[in-house]
Amino acid sequence: MGAQKCTIKAMRTHGRILLTSRSHIVVARIERNAKLGLHLSLQPILPHTCREIRPIRGIIDDDANHCTDISETILDDVDRLAAETNLTQTNIWTHIVENYYMQTGPPVRGLSKNAVENRVKYIRSNQSGGNRKGMIELPPMSKVKGSAQGFFQFQYAWHDDVKAQKDSVGVDRILAWGHPELRNLLCFENLSWFVDGTFRSAPEGFKQCATIMIYDPSSELYLPVIFTLTTAMTKLSYLKLLRCVADCVGCKLTPKEIMCDFESALIGAIR
C-alpha cells in the first residue's frame, strides 16, 4: 500500500504537544530526563470506542482498496428513516454515523453527510408530491411522536387583493402546530396569555413566527401551546389567526388578559 501524505500541526501547551491532522488528534506528553533527554509518550485525546461488530446486510468487499462498500445498506436505512419517522436531517445523519461509521472492523465506504441530507429531502419531497407545504400534513411529520394524535393543527390560506397588486399569486397563509394536551389549556377561562412574534425565526416564504403562550397556575410558568407561521404581518392576518385558533380548540376563548409586544397590527387584532 502506498504511503499517504498527512499534514500534521504541532502546538505546545502546558507541558504537552498537541498533534493534529484532518483525521487524528494525539497528545504527546513531554518528559525531561537528565540522562535520556526528551521523551515523548503518545496518548489519544479521545476515549477508545471499540464496539461489538454487528453484521451489515448487503455489504460488498472491495479487495482493491481493502474496504467494505456499505452505501446501498446506508441508503436503504436513510430511505426508511425519512419515510417512517419525523427525524430531522441532522438526527438521521447522526444515526448513520453511530450505527455504521463508529463500528470496529475493516474500513468502510459509505455516504457523505451531504448525500444523506439530500436523500432525505428527495424522499420527503416525493411523499408530498413536490409540495413543500404539503409535507407537514403527512404522517409522521403531522403526528405527535409515538402517538396517533396530531401535532399539526391547521393550515389556512386566502387571497388578498392588496397583496395581489405586488405579488402575482396574492395568497396569504397561516400554519399552526401544537400538542393537543397543551392546546386544550386555551379552553380554560381567566388565564393570562402572552403572544410573542418574531420574524427572525420565520423560514423562507414566511414573514412571522408567532407563539401563543398561556400561564399555567400549577407550574407558575407560561407554556407555549400554539406555534404559528404567517406570510403577512397585518391586522387581517392576525384576526384570521385568532379565529382559526378558536375553531381549532372548539370553544370560546376567554382569556383574563393578553400581553404582546409593541406591534400595532397584533394589538389591533387582539382588541
Give a short overview:
The chain has 271 residues and is α+β, with helices and mostly antiparallel strands. The protein has helices spanning 71-84, 89-101, 113-127, 161-164, 180-183, 235-249, 264-270, and strands spanning 9-13, 16-20, 25-33, 37-44, 60-62, 67-69, 108-109, 152-159, 171-177, 192-198, 208-216, 221-230, 257-260. The protein folds into three domains: 9-44, no CATH class; 60-127; 146-270, no CATH class.
Structure description:
This protein is α+β, with helices and mostly antiparallel strands. The protein folds into 3 domains: 36 residues, no CATH class; 68 residues; 125 residues, no CATH class. The protein is 27% helix and 30% strand. The strands form 3 sheets. Strands 8-9-12-11-10-13 form a 6-stranded mixed sheet. Strands 1-2-3-4 form a 4-stranded antiparallel sheet, with no helix packed on it. α1 packs antiparallel against α2. The chain is elongated, with a radius of gyration of 28 Å. The relative contact order is 0.08. The N terminus is likely disordered.
